């Protein structure tokens, strides 16, 4: 049971990623065969004049974030180190339409944490989830948290607008603990018109990588790379922080919501003896959110504002 | 301290007697009679044909007059949604709502998986986000409101009868009005008929544990606020039905007249919007005086049981 009085005033420190796991799921979930799926979706898409895709039903395609998250929880959280907050972030919806999956996962996770989902924000949702974890951590709402980012690849109807549907079922989990003197995660989100993304990103990276980027890894969302023309070296002109980075990675386009987190998980732990810093940058071209987060290296100095809510740029 | 700066609600004018819903909801005439005579249901609010969730949410935000001229202060917009999936991907009423309300600069997302108690979670989260941001002037907007687009015959009769309305609430991290003193939430993922493809006896188990679990979080919230139940002037319930609230009152030893059941027979249960709908009614009816401590309680399938103590 989660119990709180008035939240405490923010304490310094914030959270850091202490562990990560990532996984793809080759098979569909048995829940994709539930007979309730078709009538639910028929009713839901009917009001919008959209057609169902019979072949997707016939293939019994789709996965559930509950079943995808469970093995990650098992791998990362044991009874000796329970978590007290679990946040599930996703873009495309679960194939298990009516289940409050975060609540289900709370019952499957050591610590029976306060659990909820963050969605309806495209690729920006995991960043908001990370900010939620930070907010609970610095106001006394949690000590140890699990962030789950998941996406499944089955859409049983014609999409209602421009959207990238994942090409595989994938999930990434991050264990977040108090930064305890280390530099905390720095998460930033702002509304940016597509035409200004490159300019705003350059300014943001200049703040996040004040040394210009040497020794750092920069992970770019595939949409961001497209919008800001960063997919080739010529596109890096004017973005010295990226140009100078040790490693620049463009996340797989087939994992629109999990892609950058997938790449981040592969590069953890950060803050090793070399002080490698990882910066993640993502842009949602439909909703217009530019998001960044950085896991500072061991030698980095905590910034004055670990998490910044930014206005329109 | 997290505070509700202003609360608004939009109730569609259309009222539908529960008898008119019986056919679609697969309710027998005897079940309808029980709902009316025992459960205290009568009619429910329903949107006009063709209206979508966006229309309800827009109307609720339109009622939030305290937002006018302060749009630039809103940093976060949280859509507290009870049902996890309600619109075809990637349709998303939240961002169009923000554009209409002059809030396109805000960080807007949906928070869900607490069923009809999600609005309480959203208030708690909004307050913490604002505190963490460190801007004392900043505000968050929490909205709630859903439409009924499908029918789940696995639900018990009283849970099939739902209303449609929307609410909106401005949250601050340091305001003086309606200050949140405590929040308690108990999640029981095992009490969910969506758990597996076979819901089994979920409805019986949920019904068996419902009163005790809701009473437990209500009492825990009161004590967490440093109060006793006698200090609570009013309970703002979720509008599921009258009989279940009488049962919760019996468990708590709480006089039923302290629970505002005004909207159960005339509005119905409007998912996560009940909190705001009932807050507005309580204010309009003059049931809250400055300094009153009141308790907001909600629960939903999934299952989540939540309570929040607020000082008016």
> Total number of helical segments of chain A?
9
Instruction: Tell me about the largest β-sheet of chain A.
Output: 6 strands, mixed
Strand arrangement, major sheet of chain A: 9-8-10-11-7-12
Name the average pLDDT of chain A: 87
Structural class of chain A: alpha/beta
> Which range best describes the helical content of chain A: under 10%, 10-25%, 25-40%, 40-55%, 55-70% or over 70%?
25-40%
β-strand percent of chain A reads 15-25%
Q: What is the helical fraction of chain B, as a range of percent?
A: 25-40%
- The assembly state of the depicted protein chains is heterodimer
Order of helices and strands of chain A: EEHHHEHEHEEEHEHHEHEEE
| Sheet with the most strands: spatial strand order of chain B | 1-7-6-4-5
Shape label of chain B: globular
Number of strands of chain B: 11
Largest interface: A-B, 81 and 76 residues
| Morphology of chain A | globular
Query: Which stretches of chain A of 5+ consecutive residues score pLDDT under 50?
Result: 298-313
Number of strands of chain A: 12
Low-confidence stretches of chain B: none
Structure description:
The complex is a heterodimer of chains A (313) and B (312). Chain A has 313 residues and is of the alpha/beta class. Chain A has helices at 37-46, 54-58, 65-76, 101-108, 125-138, 197-208, 222-227, 240-243, 259-266, and strands spanning 2-4, 15-25, 85-90, 114-119, 145-151, 169-178, 186-191, 216-220, 247-250, 277-284, 289-295, 307-309. In chain A, strands 9-8-10-11-7-12 form a 6-stranded mixed sheet, sandwiched between helices. A 5-stranded mixed sheet of chain A has the order 2-6-5-3-4, with helices on both faces. Chain B has 312 residues and is an alpha/beta fold. Chain B is 31% helix and 23% strand. Chain B has a 5-stranded mixed sheet, sandwiched between helices. The longest helix of chain B is centred in the last third of the chain and has 23 residues, at 202-224.
Task: Tag the structure with descriptive keywords.
heterodimer; A: 313 residues; six-stranded mixed beta sheet; five-stranded mixed beta sheet; 24% strand; B: 312 residues; four-stranded mixed beta sheet
